[in-house]
Design a protein that fits this description.
With 118 residues, the protein is mostly helical. It has one domain. The strands form two sheets. Strands 1-2 form a two-stranded parallel ribbon. Helix 1 packs antiparallel against helix 3. The longest helix is centred in the first third of the chain and has 11 residues.
Amino acid sequence: MSGEIALFSSAVLLDELAGVLERGKFIAALASRDVTPAFLTRRYGAVTTLVGPVPVDRAVPADADDDHVIGAALGARADAIATGDRHLLELDPYRGIRILAPAAVLELVNPRGGGTDA
């Protein structure tokens, strides 16, 4: 990894994010901050590069929805996927793409929590 982070997503993944934010614990947390799921999804979409996912034949047998994550990563030619999803983490690596917990990605990008000199 080069030490840089670029965020990639797809239309399907943005739709899934919106759905997740509209349910359960997330909706209450967002409402308490006067933030709507639609607003947060638009903001996230604004800082990501949308890619066309590569079709994947059941990469994640336990959860077909996770295939969209793999397909988007392949479409982006990503070095890594940051996820807390155990089904995806069990695939590490997948076709040369590392699948790591978010903390592990941050450690690769910024070892030992070192800051930058300003």
